[in-house]
Amino acid sequence: MASLLPILLLTAFLSSKPALCYINPGATPPQKIGTKSSGGRATYIVFVEPPPPLGHGDGEDDHRRWHESFLPLSELAGSDDEPRLVHSYTEAVSGFAARLTGGELDAVSKKPGFVRAIPDRTLQLMTTHTPEFLGLRKDAGLWRDSGYGKGVIVGVLDTGIDSSHPSFDDRGVPPPPARWKGSCRDTDARCNNKLIGVKSFIPGDNDTSDGVGHGTHTASTAAGNFVDGAAVNGLGVGTAAGIAPGAHIAMYRVCTVEGCTESALLGGIDEAIKDGVDVLSISLGSSFAADYDKDPLAIGAFSAVSKGIVVVCAAGNNGPAFATLSNEAPWMVTVAASSVDRRFSAPTRLGDGRVIDGEALDQASNSSGKAYPLSYSKEQAGLCEIADTGDIKGKIVLCKLEGSPPTVVDNIKRGGAAGVVLINTDLLGYTTILRDYGSDVVQVTVADGARMIEYAGSRNPVATITFKNRTVLGVRPAPTLAAFSSRGPSFLNVGILKPDIMAPGLNILAAWPSSVARTDAAAARPSFNVISGTSMATPHVSGVAALVKSVHPDWSPAAIKSAILTTSDEVDNTGGPILDEQHNKTMLFGPFNTGAGHVNPTRAADPGLVYDIGVAEYAGFLCTLVGEYVLPIIVRNSSLQSCRDLPRVGQSHLNYPSITVELEKTPFTVNRTVTNVGPAESTYTANVTLAAEASLKLSVSPETLVFSKAGEKKTFAVTVSGRFTKAAQAVAVLEGSLRWVSPEHVVRSPVVLYIPVASAPPSPPMPAVGTRRGDNWA
Ligand SMILES: *[C@@H]1O[C@H](CO)[C@@H](O)[C@H](O)[C@H]1NC(C)=O
Ligand SMILES: *[C@@H]1O[C@H](CO)[C@@H](O)[C@H](O)[C@H]1NC(C)=O
Ligand SMILES: *[C@@H]1O[C@H](CO)[C@@H](O)[C@H](O)[C@H]1NC(C)=O
Ligand SMILES: *[C@@H]1O[C@H](CO)[C@@H](O)[C@H](O)[C@H]1NC(C)=O
Ligand SMILES: *[C@@H]1O[C@H](CO)[C@@H](O)[C@H](O)[C@H]1NC(C)=O
Ligand SMILES: *[C@@H]1O[C@H](CO)[C@@H](O)[C@H](O)[C@H]1NC(C)=O
Ligand SMILES: *[C@@H]1O[C@H](CO)[C@@H](O)[C@H](O)[C@H]1NC(C)=O
């Protein structure tokens, strides 16, 4: 058992707990082993068969007694040891979490009804403006039509929540629906019609007040109420709101500053299913590729989805390397992170008159407006780490942070520098992850850094930084892909396009507990913070799912996902293709980076057609991908026990709203079925495109779909035909799209074709080299 996970949280702040402030995607993350205790015990998640139908108590008691029957006698004898049974699950999985020695685990595994045990792993956590950027307007459009997400419950699995924050006031929010079973019992949390459930799943620690900040930030992004006068250091001033400000929030605390154990995570999912949430927002993940039958998060998510809950997960922060995704199961919505069109502008004027526009999160500066000599140490490769040793007094130091901790900036300031211009690391390119470095520090892109380095080589270079306290909106191009956003292709199912969708995740302003220190004492109330990660992108999509669910309460999780994917934007605010962190076109490998595109809430509520998927089809998919033995572990449905009775569903053939095919030969056909959720009588015409590669052809049959009633289903076939030319084999992957077009709707699916390479297996060019996860740990 060696379970160690890179930290996924990517933050742009100096918190009081530097352990989580992992900001350099290129560095080796700290390693931390298991959850062993002094008694040689470790926590295991033990999967067992469902309880025999003998009990007389309620379901939970039956489960608990059944689970206890697997444990060593000392537990029952009531020894004063720590409790062995950590969680007894009833909904998310059939099984429990317990603390056991190796010998005890052996004994447990010999009992009838035992299925398998896996060691508990620790997973890591991965505004004022984003609703507007996504086209949501007060008293108009989708916000008005959905009552801001009225009647929908968003469950957030995270670090807890600052319940006193005004983002969680319930002004204008009606009581929760009668079906809601959750509560705030056993916590100090202030609950109301906005925050309707709070519970901790950390053994022995029921403090839910969020000592990290992450959970408060993500919950307020998904469904925080309107708060006027939100700002960070006086920047970005405006009205803060979540994406579904009328929805209810339930917080399940499954993470601490050290991360999130899978046993706690399953406890949270279990409770959320019982409580009756509609959407689960999961801004955390593993960067290990565990097979689905050994991945508690994937299994718990399956249970949630089969109960009608939309499960939205972070794609991970291990970009820009290729094939670095987390949470790639087809029943999840996997979210990539993008930039927004806002900058906290801090321009630097060079002695030659050029102005370089950087950004700063703290603009309360003394150096502002004065010219100082500009210092760049070419000999030291411009590294900040070394810059503080030179003669820097009264100078503006231009340097690259690269792998060093952000505290080197303090050393430079202590050395008497008048200011610091920090250049993004090469891998970040244009992705400037803002961090509150205190006063007199500006962050610039690699391209702007290069211009400044060139100028610093001239005679007597000088620079003037102006902190204008200016928040600039309408920045172009936006959105762009954030450098840290994990990239596809999917490791476990290469024939399912992942990530699914892209949403704002760079420099997101949202609620922050006033008790969690930012850099200085300026902890304003209410307090907000700007942080970055796919953790921040995830609750944007959870909020959109809540809005869609509010207007279409009967849609399945797969239908809601389809609506979000097929209506997304494929162009940025310049009208061109969405660019990556180097401002290159993401065209060739675009879908592996951005999924279907950038989320568009208004269109998502009215997609015209949806690609739906039921439990039986997912089960058929698992039969084909893994085998029959996973049905009792993952699917757990008495009417779906044998693969023989299920449709054979290869990866490309799952009724997914995108099409990904690993071609071996042509012609190759996939069938898809769409359901009419638009006007009863509507006619759609197919439009297919494929990247310039004349030798292969995409065709659709039939080319026209005529619907006469709501809910009507139509099946069509998409065929790839033609030859694999050398040119096609050289690119290895071809991108295209399928659009169903009616006068009111365009239903777009990305199409990705892997072309077999003549001899060697396909090895597409990569933006950077990443080491793919360790092997399985079971
Ligand atoms: C936390 O749990 C303990 C033990 O069950 C209980 O005594 C305490 O009141 C709980 N704390 C809160 C804030 O509910
Ligand atoms: C920045 O400007 C806003 C209003 O434009 C103001 O409220 C805030 O105090 C200013 N912040 C600083 C640090 O000057
Ligand atoms: C900047 O201002 C702060 C507070 O006004 C002061 O403590 C600090 O010494 C000043 N720094 C410089 C470099 O002048
Ligand atoms: C991407 O952009 C960088 C710099 O902006 C450039 O050096 C590189 O060649 C580009 N890569 C591709 C594949 O176009
Ligand atoms: C079990 O599978 C059947 C057949 O697909 C489905 O109708 C039913 O909803 C499933 N039950 C659960 C609890 O998922
Ligand atoms: C697609 O549908 C057609 C017509 O129903 C059927 O003949 C064919 O076998 C299907 N193909 C696949 C791959 O499912
Ligand atoms: C298909 O869609 C593309 C992209 O929107 C468009 O340029 C083209 O004109 C369309 N073709 C037809 C036949 O409608």
Automatic annotation (TrEMBL):
Example GO BP: proteolysis
InterPro entries, A to Z: Peptidase_S8/S53_dom (IPR000209), Peptidase_S8/S53_dom_sf (IPR036852), Peptidase_S8_Asp-AS (IPR023827), Peptidase_S8_Ser-AS (IPR023828), Peptidase_S8_subtilisin-rel (IPR015500), Peptidases_S8_3 (IPR034197), S8pro/Inhibitor_I9 (IPR010259), S8pro/Inhibitor_I9_sf (IPR037045)
Molecular function GO terms recorded: serine-type endopeptidase activity
Region annotation (Disordered) ranges: 165-184
CDD domains recorded: PA_subtilisin_like (cd02120), Peptidases_S8_3 (cd04852)
Gene3D superfamilies: 2.60.40.2310, 3.50.30.30, Peptidase S8 propeptide/proteinase inhibitor I9, Peptidase S8/S53 domain
Peptidase S8/S53 domain span: 149-571
Keywords: Glycoprotein, Hydrolase, Protease, Serine protease, Signal
Domain Subtilisin-like protease fibronectin type-III stretches: 654-752
Signal peptide bounds: 1-21
GO cellular component entries: extracellular region
Residue ranges constituting the Inhibitor I9 domain according to the UniProt record: 58-126
Cellular localisation: Secreted
Active site as annotated: D158, H214, S535
UniProt-listed PROSITE patterns: SUBTILASE, SUBTILASE_ASP, SUBTILASE_SER
Full protein name: Subtilisin-like protease
